[in-house]
Specification:
This protein is an alpha/beta fold. Helices cover about 40% and strands about 15% of the residues. The strands form two sheets. Strands 1, 2, 3, 4, 7, 8, 9, 10, 11, 12, 13 and 14 form a twelve-stranded mixed beta sheet that branches. Strands 5-6 form a two-stranded antiparallel ribbon. Helix 8 packs across helix 9, helix 9 runs parallel beside helix 16 and helix 10 runs parallel beside helix 11. The protein is globular.
């Protein structure tokens, strides 16, 4: 049987590539339900997520108890999912990233998670429990699940060896590689990287001077990049062929490139600091499914065995600190992960939650930069 892990780890579509395909088919704004072949006749909860997270390998304990997997529905990005929910789509759990949680909470589509019903809560990596925007008025609105770093992947045979000795995001601004650099078409990613280079620590509270500096740096980059990509598959292919010598990327696709024998490196410790992300699960308001079943699913997803599957098959890090003891040193190293995630995250800056007005300003600025205005 073809599963998400077969698709993503076997050199086929990546998670974002799959979601780009959904958009091309006109499915980016709709739920795409998927019933488990082993599901029982009784109604199951519905899990609304990016493609890939529905794999039974990540909720084995739930499957054992209920005889099958939840109903799955996919979305292409957090904004598409929120619009669907606001328009009345019924699901029980969803899987956005941390920088969307405040917007979802303010839209009234989620409710707090009762941490007293989470069997693995005490083992969740502390740094992930209080990421910006995920707690409010003493309540937890988000259960972290997968996380990793965003950075720069580069062809070690095609760029100056200085970048091997000292990792720096400045590679994506190096004029020697004009027309051979790739940038993720993401305002969150672009602003975070520019701010890191500039030493701006809080992109949610920038002065006008700092905002202009971020804009100027991104405008300088525009003249150097070959293109802004939306699917990591495009960046992978271009790095493999040598069309690109470096690109904004994250650790999981670098693993796939290495498995193909491509001489690629990923910046694990850039001198400007690590940019990290965390995605996870939220409880949807008025979800029709059984409440205990929802928590059984959350507990299954945060179990170390589920995390082992996540790391080995999808290449993303897991929220449970005990997961890493189950994974070999070679596997962790190949995925750019540390056996001590707490220490690694101590040097990380997560994507920050911006006010609606500031997000609008950043989006307008980034679009103007890409258009050369």
């Amino acid at each position: 049987m073809t599963t998400a892990s077969n698709i993503f780890s076997g050199g086929g579509l990546d998670r974002r590539g799959f979601n780009k395909m959904l958009l091309s088919l006109g499915l980016g704004m709709v739920a795409l339900p998927m019933r488990s072949q082993t599901s029982v006749a009784a109604e199951r909860i519905t899990y609304f997520a990016y493609a890939g997270y529905e794999d039974p390998g990540m909720h084995g304990a739930y499957q054992k108890k209920y005889g099958g997997s939840p109903e799955s529905a996919f979305f292409a990005d957090d904004e598409a999912a929120l619009l669907k929910l606001k328009n009345g789509y019924d699901a029980d759990l969803a899987h956005p990233c941390s920088n969307s949680v405040t917007k979802w909470r303010e839209a009234g589509v989620i409710v707090p998670v009762d941490i007293n019903r989470l069997s693995n809560w005490d083992d969740i990596i502390p740094a992930l429990k209080s990421v910006d925007g995920t707690t409010f008025e003493g309540q937890q609105w988000f259960l972290p699940f997968d996380w990793g770093s965003n950075g720069v992947a580069f062809r070690e045979d095609l760029v100056d060896g200085q970048y091997l000795k000292e990792n720096s995001y400045r590679l994506l601004w190096d004029p020697r590689y004009t027309g051979r650099l790739g940038m993720w078409d993401s305002v969150d990613g672009a602003v975070a990287m520019a701010a890191a280079i500039l030493g701006i620590k809080d992109t949610a509270n920038v002065s006008d001077v700092e905002f202009d500096k971020i804009r100027q740096l991104l405008a300088e980059q525009r003249a150097l990049v070959a293109y802004y990509w939306t699917s990591e598959t495009d960046a992978e292919t271009a790095l493999a062929s040598g069309e690109l010598v470096a690109s904004y990327l994250w650790n999981a696709p670098v693993l796939r490139l290495k498995q193909q024998g491509v001489p690629v490196q990923y910046m694990l410790k850039p001198k400007e600091g690590v940019i990290s992300y965390v995605c996870g699960i939220v409880m949807l308001k008025n979800g029709p499914g059984d409440e205990q079943e929802k928590y059984d699913f959350l507990n299954a997803m945060t179990d170390p065995e589920s995390g082992k599957f996540l790391i080995e098959n999808l290449g993303y890090a897991h929220c449970n600190k005990n997961t890493f003891a189950l994974v070999s040193d070679d596997v962790l190293a190949a995925r750019g992960l540390s056996r001590d995630p707490t220490a690694y995250l101590a040097d990380s800056t997560f994507f920050q939650t911006w006010s609606q007005d500031l997000r609008g300003r950043y989006i307008t600025m980034f679009e103007d930069v890409k258009l050369g205005r």
